[in-house]
Amino acid sequence: MPTSLVHTLQFAALDPVRPVDDLLRLALVVARKLNVSEIEEWISSELNGYGSNTELPSYRVVKGELKGIDPDTGNLLPIVLRQPNIAAAYGKRRLTQSISEIEHLVAACGRDGEVYSRTHAEAENLLREHLGSRPPTQIGVVVYAPQIRTVLSMVRNRVIEWATKLEQMGILGDGITFTQQEQEKATHVTNITIMGSVHGSQIQQNAAHAEQTTTPPAVDLAGC
Predict the structure, then answer these.
(1) Domain coordinates of the chain in residue numbers?
(2) How many CA atoms are closer than 13 Å to the CA of 70, on its beta-carbon side?
(3) Helix %, strand %, coil % for the chain, to 5?
(4) What's the pLDDT tens digit per position in 80-137?
(5) How high does pLDDT run on average in the chain?
(6) Are strands 76-78 and 65-69 parallel, antiparallel or unpaired?
(7) Could you tell me which of 39, 147, 42, 26 has the C-alpha nearest to residue 95?
(8) What band does 190 get if pLDDT is binned at 50, 70 and 90?
(9) Using CA atoms, how far apart are residues 179 and 216, in angstroms rounded to an integer?
(10) pTM of the model
(11) Are 27 and 17 in contact (CB under 8 A)?
């Protein structure tokens, strides 16, 4: 067992079976002991979830496939629009849930499962204008499990990146403590998140805080 808290974090991050939320709790201890507020804020957001109007890291915005419920069969069918930019805009989904919720969602979906979230009424009406005389009875977006799993991989990668940068700067700690000099050095190792102002819909699983675009109603998720 490593005596350095940073080495302990590295070992945990490299363990593929260790849950990411467990890894983040360990990373939070390191961030707080080093007094690195920017990293601590990122970790807390990942552990507790992001606010509906909060900027998200780019890896938490995924591209889905527009699908509608066929009025005759009730089956989900792909929606093809002449304007691909419209399909791309309405096909994005924001993942604001806690990392634990995302892990549970991935586990429920399996390796190749999919998640369906209905588009809110305003967007649904706009899309129907492009779909001819027999539009679907309901329009939504399907996101596939591998895209959701990417969130977990990206978070783990950023923890690894941060922990290795700390080591490169000579920040290891003695047991679970860090020197004042190490704390001062750590303030220069903060650029591990890729943030971006992203607007769009959110995948949710019966979540009370679910929302889409600006002031949307809650949406239903039809499982995996």
Answers:
(1) 5-53+151-196, 57-149
(2) 7
(3) 40, 15, 40
(4) 777 777 777 778 888 899 999 999 988 888 777 888 877 777 777 778 777 766 777 7
(5) 80
(6) antiparallel
(7) 147
(8) low
(9) 48
(10) 0.79
(11) no
